[in-house]
Write a structure and sequence with these properties.
- The chain has 93 residues and is of the alpha+beta class.
- The protein has one domain (8-90): Glutaredoxin (3-Layer(aba) Sandwich).
- It contains 3 helices and 4 strands.
- The protein has helices at residues 16-26, 46-52, 73-90; strands at residues 5-11, 35-41, 58-61, 64-68.
- Strands 2-1-3-4 form a 4-stranded mixed β-sheet.
- Strand 1, helix 1 and strand 2 (35-41) form a beta-alpha-beta unit.
- It is globular and about 40 Å long.
Length: 93
């Protein structure tokens, strides 16, 4: 069985775009994608706050930015499907 892919979610409390995007993203777990969300609060470090404040929510996989400033359900499906396909190819499946 393959390991689920990991999506890093940069956001912060009180960000409505973060809340909306995270809810959409969470609704896709296991339907049909297996992935984990690693939530990072940008307020946990000055560097993250400076780097991402004007861009959150930011989704990242393996150091590659997938999305900034929110994403629709359709966009998220396409993003996660693309990442899952690349992960399968990398694992020889």
């Amino acid at each position: 069985m393959n390991e689920p892919i990991s999506i890093t979610f940069y956001g912060r409390a009180g960000c409505h775009l973060c809340d909306e995007t995270r809810t959409r993203l969470e609704s896709l777990i296991g339907k049909p994608f297996e992935f984990d969300i690693v939530a990072v609060d940008i307020e946990s470090s000055d560097d993250l706050h400076q780097r991402y404040l004007e861009r959150i929510p930011v989704l990242e996989h393996d150091g590659v930015i997938l999305s900034e400033l929110g994403a629709s359900q359709t966009q998220l499906v396409k993003l996660i499907a693309g990442v899952a396909s690349i992960a399968r190819d990398a694992n020889g499946n």
